[in-house]
């Protein structure tokens, strides 16, 4: 980018770190349950002794490696007496932002220190939205960027004589163990590496791939077996449940072409323009873009495998973002050398604005209520001894103990996949008949002190709320759908005096 002077490595790292930390404080919205329930809630239970584990942890389809990182951070807070709720919430996100900083800097080095590359990796709205979230896909994306920065690409004749690094193999093995569906990325790269290596192919397999695979696999099997209390291979359990048994489709299905028509366009946003230009350029000049063809092969196989799986989400293609941004900078940089200054300003400004608007909306407005409600609940519980909280919402609509950080009784609707086809799960049963569910649940025990719900449910449970008062009403989304409403409501049980005053008011 000709408009920016040369940057030193420390300056580059500082810029990246600033943007990633900025995302931690600006992105204050809910995205998906896994950000909390597959990482922070597990870690909180490990360290503080109370928390909630979803069915995945009872079935053993998740590795404890990722939650254990946050457990280590929690342990430091616990030992030092600094485990204030705010610190418990913030520290894991700061850590993930630091990892994303390392990934972005690796991407910058991979491109040869091009300023356009720095601009392109810092501005994507979906990466700004997710780079500070404690999602396994965020870590997976970081692995991809770091691994590609040390991968032995054979660009030109000199590439065949360069010393090959095997650091990427370690990251590939860890990534595949944590999430087996990331295997297509590494499979294409491994085949390419074996075919183009300047080492003896058999030696590469026996001295690099196999030993690293056994070391990583053995260490992680040992880690998981220790926490599960039995010998277990979590990648196999993951593959068995989510692919062979297709349990993942219980949480929603999409047509095979969803990633092409919706998934990728949303994740790329306005960056789809330079990415499309790059793909056209690669296909039009294949001999000059061997690395580009390789990266396209990675993208195609990853999308093909994930398109075969019925359950689809935007975050599942997030690890492809560094690849797409690499392709984009490969066409923008040559163009920028010949472009007029006003053209540079126009392109940079368009990309920046086109990413800033969705970043602000997704980070500050869309689905904010279920995160903002947690400190309010913490305050309400602190003011009422013996409190209990009922979340009358679709399952896992909020964080839990990782954000409450109080050993308070909570109740949330269960949505474990049914063991028998056609069987009704609890969340479904609740929404079919909330009043019946309430009678069954609270006929023999005390009703909850606090109730958290979406506004769309209010009309169906008016009779249950007669002994409660509304204490908080939070905006959540402008696009309510099904059981997810536009507002989050918090009700608190009234004491005797408040009930009498309410009765007299009527």
Automatic annotation (TrEMBL):
Q: Where are the transmembrane segments?
A: 12-31, 116-136, 168-192, 204-228, 256-280, 292-310, 316-335, 342-364
Gene Ontology biological-process annotations: GPI anchor biosynthetic process
Q: MF terms per GO, please?
A: alpha-1,2-mannosyltransferase activity
Q: What's the top EC group for this one?
A: transferase
Topology in membrane: Multi-pass membrane protein
Instruction: Write out the annotated subcellular location.
Output: Endoplasmic reticulum membrane
Question: Does the record carry Transmembrane as a key word?
Answer: yes
User: EC number(s) in its UniProt entry?
Assistant: 2.4.1.-
**Where does the UniProt entry say this protein principally localizes?**
endoplasmic reticulum
Keyword Hydrolase tagged: no
* Xref: InterPro entries: GPI_mannosylTrfase (IPR005599)
Which Gene Ontology terms of cellular component type are present? endoplasmic reticulum membrane
Q: Which family does it belong to?
A: Belongs to the glycosyltransferase 22 family.
> What's the protein name?
Mannosyltransferase
Q: Which organism is it from?
A: Parnassius mnemosyne (clouded apollo)
């Amino acid at each position: 980018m000709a408009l920016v002077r040369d940057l030193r490595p420390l300056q580059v790292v500082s810029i990246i770190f600033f943007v990633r930390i900025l995302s931690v404080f600006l992105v204050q919205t809910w995205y998906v349950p896994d950000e909390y329930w597959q990482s922070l809630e597990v870690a909180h239970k490990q360290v503080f002794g109370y928390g909630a584990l979803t069915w995945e942890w009872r079935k053993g389809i998740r590795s404890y490696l990722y939650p254990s990182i946050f457990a280590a951070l929690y342990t430091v807070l616990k030992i030092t007496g600094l485990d204030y709720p705010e610190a418990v919430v913030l520290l894991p996100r700061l850590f993930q932002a630091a990892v994303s900083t390392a990934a972005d800097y690796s991407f910058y080095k991979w491109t040869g220190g091009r300023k356009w590359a720095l601009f392109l990796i810092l501005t994507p709205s979906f990466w700004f939205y997710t780079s500070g979230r404690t999602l396994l896909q965020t870590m997976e994306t970081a692995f991809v960027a770091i691994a590609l920065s040390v991968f032995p690409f054979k660009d030109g004749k000199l590439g065949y004589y360069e010393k090959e690094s095997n650091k990427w193999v370690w990251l590939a093995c860890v990534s595949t163990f944590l999430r087996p569906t990331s295997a297509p990325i590494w499979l294409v790269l491994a085949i390419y590496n074996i075919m183009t290596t300047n080492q003896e192919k058999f030696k590469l397999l026996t001295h690099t791939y196999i030993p690293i695979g056994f070391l990583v696999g053995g260490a992680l099997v040992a880690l998981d077996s220790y926490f599960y209390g039995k010998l277990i291979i979590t990648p196999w359990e993951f593959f068995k449940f989510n692919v062979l048994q297709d349990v993942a489709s219980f949480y929603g299905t999409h047509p095979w072409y969803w990633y092409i028509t919706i998934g990728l366009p949303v994740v790329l946003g306005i960056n789809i323009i330079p990415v499309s230009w790059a793909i056209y350029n690669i296909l039009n000049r294949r001999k000059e873009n061997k690395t580009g063809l390789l990266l396209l092969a990675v993208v195609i196989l990853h999308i093909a495998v994930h398109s075969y799986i019925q359950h689809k989400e935007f975050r599942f293609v997030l690890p492809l973002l560094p690849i797409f941004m690499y392709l984009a900078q490969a066409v923008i940089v040559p163009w920028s050398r010949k472009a007029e200054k006003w053209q540079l300003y126009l392109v940079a400004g368009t990309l920046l604005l086109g990413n800033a608007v969705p970043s602000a909306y997704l980070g500050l407005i869309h689905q904010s209520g279920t995160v903002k409600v947690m400190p309010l609940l913490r305050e309400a519980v602190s003011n009422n001894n013996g409190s209990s909280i009922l979340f009358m919402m679709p399952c896992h609509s909020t964080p839990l103990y990782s954000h409450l950080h109080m050993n308070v009784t909570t109740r949330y609707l269960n949505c474990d996949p049914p063991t028998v086809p056609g069987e009704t799960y609890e969340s479904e049963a609740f929404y079919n008949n909330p009043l019946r569910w309430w009678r069954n649940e609270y006929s023999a025990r005390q009703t909850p002190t606090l109730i958290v719900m979406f506004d769309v449910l209010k009309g169906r449970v008016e009779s249950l709320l007669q002994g409660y008062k509304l204490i908080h009403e939070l905006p959540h989304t402008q696009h309510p759908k099904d059981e997810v409403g536009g507002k989050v409501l918090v009700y608190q049980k009234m004491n005797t005096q408040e009930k009498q005053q309410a009765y007299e008011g009527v």
